[in-house]
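hey can u check if this looks right to u? its 76 residues, i copy pasted from the old doc so theres a chance i mangled smth
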Amino acid sequence: MWLVSFGLLFVLAEVYQWIEQITLPLPVYMVGGVLLVIASNYDKGICWFLGRDPAIPDESPPLPPRSSPEKLLQQN
């Protein structure tokens, strides 16, 4: 069992050192950040951006109908 644990830790350390040497350009980080934002806020209503129905219904009250300026002047 200790041999398997040692081997796993060794592989993880080598993979970490290999990944540490990789350099990525800034646009790759930006795309990754955008994907993380979309994934983390998916349930909060980002679906409209993707063209899908939102998972959370809109609970805001409906807006009153628009009135013309003439009607506003007649009310005063």
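Residues 70 and 76 are 10 Å apart (CA to CA).
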